[in-house]
UniProtKB/TrEMBL annotation:
<dbReference type="Pfam" id="PF01425">
    <property type="entry name" value="Amidase"/>
</dbReference>
<feature type="domain" description="Amidase">
    <location>
        <begin position="84"/>
        <end position="559"/>
    </location>
</feature>
<dbReference type="GO" id="GO:0009062">
    <property type="term" value="P:fatty acid catabolic process"/>
</dbReference>
<dbReference type="InterPro" id="IPR052096">
    <property type="entry name" value="Endocannabinoid_amidase"/>
</dbReference>
<dbReference type="InterPro" id="IPR023631">
    <property type="entry name" value="Amidase_dom"/>
</dbReference>
<feature type="active site" description="Charge relay system">
    <location>
        <position position="139"/>
    </location>
</feature>
<feature type="active site" description="Acyl-ester intermediate">
    <location>
        <position position="238"/>
    </location>
</feature>
<protein>
    <recommendedName>
        <fullName>fatty acid amide hydrolase</fullName>
        <ecNumber>3.5.1.99</ecNumber>
    </recommendedName>
</protein>
<keyword id="KW-0442">Lipid degradation</keyword>
<feature type="binding site">
    <location>
        <position position="214"/>
    </location>
    <ligand>
        <name>substrate</name>
    </ligand>
</feature>
<keyword id="KW-0597">Phosphoprotein</keyword>
<feature type="active site" description="Charge relay system">
    <location>
        <position position="214"/>
    </location>
</feature>
<feature type="binding site">
    <location>
        <begin position="235"/>
        <end position="238"/>
    </location>
    <ligand>
        <name>substrate</name>
    </ligand>
</feature>
<dbReference type="InterPro" id="IPR036928">
    <property type="entry name" value="AS_sf"/>
</dbReference>
<dbReference type="InterPro" id="IPR020556">
    <property type="entry name" value="Amidase_CS"/>
</dbReference>
<keyword id="KW-0443">Lipid metabolism</keyword>
<comment type="similarity">
    <text>Belongs to the amidase family.</text>
</comment>
Length: 572
């Protein structure tokens, strides 16, 4: 017996030694790649700055002050050229990058693309596309010819895409000019924004806090006014959480509303929770104008990707005179949001009621089950795909919690979940969520289908058009917090599980009264609540958004409610 124990220990020791030596070699090799990539980025930013500085400062400042609609109008009328727009946004993008570290590459060819467009526009027979000359920022994982899509993995640096994805092709056809790529958390499966290749992107309102993720670079860039419109992706809140954290507005459409051919994903092959691309901007109005043009011309994508149905922009749904019936909640029963987030929903409710809409309470059923189903369907292989990739890379310390959990075999997690649930029930839920076998996975898929039916059934029973609810559990926390409170995505991941269209609109900022309420009333019943409370102290002045959601192909109703909230707040 002793012999076998010694043998086992020796075997384990040898394996550990081999693993450690191997990891050391990988890290040493990749560290040189990081250095090279960062040097290249520094040169790239210098070049972007040089291009931005070509434009006379007075002229540049005037163009920089135009919002999306105004810039679009000036470009259409020929009062501003595409080259001027691109140079202005290189300048503004560099400033935003210097503040937040949001950009992973400026797409320097943008200047030439703009010159060619201006040249074409000289011909009297040329009809300008609707978004002629508007600079577009892109989350780093979206495929642009000649540029990397590393998703924060050092091993994927210097492997540029050979083609634009269908979506990027389409945006170019509509006149948009991709001018930069923006930062992400390593693996995309996090709602912060740090990776070993490009470092940490910070919140434009407070650099000690995260801009959110995984489309965090977009949130930071747009929030710091370095871009008017950008594209993110979302499998659990990655468009909506950065919008909420940075005071920007964005929409995650349902899966089928965009072509996915030639696109990228965090974990390919998870059909119930697919990545959705979606726009992000400084306001809802810009998202509407963008989507009106893209979905108005969706045949371009459908023709090239038959899995994308030709569902056109539905103006009659967006501009309908019929008042909406809105279901709302301020607590999903899984994770009570901090006071400012609840107040934001109640304020948005008042705005919608003042506009004549009916707003009634709605209770999303069984969020504990949703959390389990969501994690089961996202990490459908127990996290193996991402873990294998991470173990061949430098691992980002701010996602250590995910990595540690993925390293514990599923059967061990299951065995530990019961005793853990006795002292920390919600952790017990998380630890029993990853799937053990395909039998359980099939069951989870069937349960998701059943939950979708139940949820839309509840909405139909009450004639609800849209749902209004918090965008998250807290305002932007410090960079290491998202990994420690993984299950804080319940407000957003629900609408990925349902495949609803869902968007976030900024409503308010954290006030002193919110902080007092937090200190006096916010629960401290488990570790996650304690972390959330601590992270929210000191967040006075941070932006707070609310979320609006509706079943698939009703994104226009979501945008309508978001826009009405925006108009009520800003008067325009
Ligand atoms: C013991 C249980 C282990 C559970 C381990 C969970 C690991 C974390 C997995 C998923 C994290 C979910 C957070 C999602 C944040 C938003 C991600 C997102 O939307 N990404 C966009 C994209 O992938 O395109």
């Amino acid at each position: 017996m002793l012999f076998y124990v010694v043998l086992l220990l020796l075997g384990a020791g040898a394996y550990y030694y081999h693993f450690k030596t191997n990891r050391k070699k990988i890290i040493e090799r990749l560290e040189t790649v990081v250095q090279r990539r960062r040097d290249d980025l520094a040169k790239n930013v210098q070049e972007a700055k040089r291009i931005g500085d070509k434009l006379d400062a007075t002229r540049r400042d005037w163009i920089a002050g135009l919002d999306f609609e105004q810039l679009q109008g000036e470009l259409q009328r020929g009062h501003v050229s595409a080259v001027e727009a691109v140079r202005t946004y290189f300048y503004k993008g560099v400033l935003a990058h210097q503040k937040t570290n949001a950009v992973t590459a400026f797409i320097l060819e943008a200047e030439q693309q703009a010159e060619e467009m201006d040249e074409k526009a000289k011909s009297p027979s040329y009809v300008k596309p609707p978004m002629f000359g508007i600079p577009l920022s892109l989350k780093e994982c979206l495929k642009v010819k000649g540029y990397d899509t590393t998703r924060g993995f050092v091993q994927d640096a210097y492997r540029p895409s050979t083609e634009d994805s269908i979506q990027i092709e389409h945006y170019k056809k509509l006149g948009l000019i991709p001018f930069c790529q923006t930062n992400v958390p390593q693996s995309l499966l996090s709602y912060n924004c740090s990776n070993p290749l490009f470092g940490t992107t910070t919140n434009p309102y407070d650099s000690t806090r995260t801009c959110g993720g995984s489309s965090g670079g977009e949130g930071a860039l747009i929030g710091a006014k370095g871009s008017l419109i950008g594209i993110g992706t979302d499998v659990g809140g990655s468009v909506r959480i950065p919008c909420h954290f940075t005071g920007t507005a964005g929409l995650k459409p349902s899966k089928m509303r965009f072509a996915h051919r030639g696109g990228g994903a965090s974990v390919p092959g998870k059909p119930m929770i697919d990545a959705n691309d979606g726009p992000m901007a400084q306001d809802v109005k810009t998202n509407v104008e963008f989507l009106r043009n893209v979905w108005g011309d969706i045949d371009f994508q459908s023709d090239r990707d038959p899995y994308c149905p030709p569902v056109h922009w539905n103006e009659s749904l967006y501009a309908s005179e019929k008042k909406l019936r809105v279901g709302y909640y301020i607590d999903d029963g899984w994770f009570t949001p901090t006071p400012a987030l609840q107040r934001a929903v109640l304020e948005a409710k008042k705005h919608l009621e003042a506009a004549g809409h009916t707003v009634v309470p709605f209770y999303p059923p069984r969020l504990t089950e949703v959390i389990q189903l969501y994690f089961r369907a996202v990490c459908l292989d127990g996290g193996q795909y991402v873990l294998n990739k991470l173990l061949k890379d430098i691992i980002e310390p701010t996602i250590n919690m995910q990595v540690t959990l993925w390293m514990i075999p599923t059967w061990v997690q299951r065995a530990l979940s019961y005793p853990i649930s006795l002292v920390f029930p919600r952790m017990g839920v998380l630890m029993s969520s990853l799937t053990r076998d395909t039998f359980e996975l099939r069951e989870a898929y069937a349960d998701i289908e059943a939950y979708r039916e139940e949820y839309v059934g509840l909405m139909m029973k009450d004639n609800l058009d849209v749902i209004l609810c918090p965008a998250s559990i807290m305002p932007a926390p410090q960079h290491d917090i998202p990994s420690k409170v993984l299950c804080g995505v319940s407000y957003t991941c629900l609408y990925n599980l349902l495949d609803f269209g869902a968007g976030v609109v900024p409503v308010t900022k954290v006030s002193k009264a919110d902080e007092e309420k937090l200190i006096n009333e916010y629960p401290e019943t488990d570790k996650w609540y304690q972390i959330t409370k601590k992270a929210t102290i000191g967040a006075i002045g941070m932006p707070i958004g609310v979320q609006v959601a509706a079943p698939p192909f009703r994104e226009e109703a979501v945008l309508r409610a978001m826009r009405e909230i925006e108009i009520a707040i800003h008067g325009k």
